[in-house]
Amino acid sequence: MFKHILVPLDGSRLAESALPAAAYIAVKLASMVTLIHVIENNAPQEVHGQPHLRTAQEAELYLQEIRKLWFPKVQLLDCHVHTAEVADVARSIVDHSGELDYDLIVMCSHGRGKAKQLFMGSIAQTIIGLGSIPVLIIHPDATGALSEFSCRTILVPLDNDPDHGQGLPVAKELAGKFGAALHLSMVVELFTTLSGVRAVTSRLLPGTTSRLLEISARNGEKFVQQRLSELLRQGYNASADVLRGDPVGVIVKSAQTIKADLIVLATHGKSGMEGFLAGSFSHKLCSLCTTPLLLIPVVSDPAL
Fold it and tell me: Which of 29, 83, 186, 260 makes the best surface tag, with the fewest CB within 10 Å?
């Protein structure tokens, strides 16, 4: 499980939204934590309406304060300031993986409005596209308050792509460590919610498309029930459902209905223009969902 957590901070209250989750996970998993600040090239005076950390000295003092305030129970904790100014913060964070050897990044999603975030991508989504390290994205509270984090229910979206099943083993291990329940959810689209090429095809072949969607729903029920039976045999507190509609909207609503504390999702990591054109599920979910979202980069062959 996660042995070393990296928490990028820029000095803003918004970025500090990641701290409750990072502290919770570090204690539960007995993980090492590294707090990092990357000095930006031509850094602005303010970030998110608050003074920006612009020098190594003020960044070091800030990280030490965060260390004392948020991680008193963490045995292994380091503060790292990358003093060489960089233009690409996301790339710099990814490049530190070799030096710091972390295996989980916990950070806030710096949203700038749903439409713009969906098109451009957040720093967190950019990181998942650049590297191979899982990223836990925390969405800031609308009031600016730092929300407490605990994990009692984990939602795991599934589909018929075997690659996307790579999130389930991670969710199972976390459920065991946290004492959390697991809920599996598969969403099969309706004729009216298809988009892109599939929408064009549906208009040309409406009858065939409808029949294929019904077959997908039946196959989905069998697939999900098999996964659920396995979990119950292994002693997990688990449940599952197959729902119909727009996948992102349904998952967002499902997370609210079951009061999920965490969504675990395997992703190919499309972001920015690539994610926009591909209709990346994870990218849209990151943009529109307020539930903490753990993105697991898909590995072509998990055995390698």
Answer: 83
